[in-house]
Amino acid sequence: MSIGLITGSKRRRATSPSSSVSGRDFEDGQPSSSASSVGRKRRRTTNIPNVDPIAVCHELYNTIRDNKDDQGRMLCELFIRAPKRWNQPDYCHIVTHPIDMMKIQLKMEEYDDVDQITSDFQLLFNNAKAYYKVIYNVITNTFTYWTL
């Protein structure tokens, strides 16, 4: 049995006889089972704004393209175009799925979500690591031999 107390223009529910001495509906900091089943259901709201995935893809592409180092050199220079077969014939033997920034830009309207462009950038970076690691090892070995 609960008795409503009127204070001002707001109604409060009086504490039930089963609540603790302090008048709260909590015991040891935990809500009682009767208090948790009586409350209204809250509508779950998210604070995440609705974002256009195409706009995010464009922003990601522009961020990678426009990134510069401390000397002002664009870091994407190596990634703008994949090496040509006639220029670097070993590239096609090391990299099985070539991709470059120009291909990603041409595919920009085909991306439906950020995961697709992210996987293309991941492929681009993995290709560069695979190819230039081989080149780096050759250069390092050359300098090692030169110092002998």
TrEMBL record:
One of its GO terms (cellular component) is RSC-type complex. The keyword Repeat applies. The keyword Transcription regulation applies. One of its GO terms (molecular function) is chromatin binding. PROSITE patterns: BROMODOMAIN_2. It comes from the Eukaryota. Residues 1-47 are annotated as: Disordered. Residues 71-131 form the Bromo domain. One of its GO terms (biological process) is transcription elongation by RNA polymerase II. It is found in: Nucleus. Keywords: Bromodomain, Chromatin regulator, Nucleus, Repeat, Transcription, Transcription regulation. Gene3D superfamilies: Bromodomain-like. This is Bromo domain-containing protein.
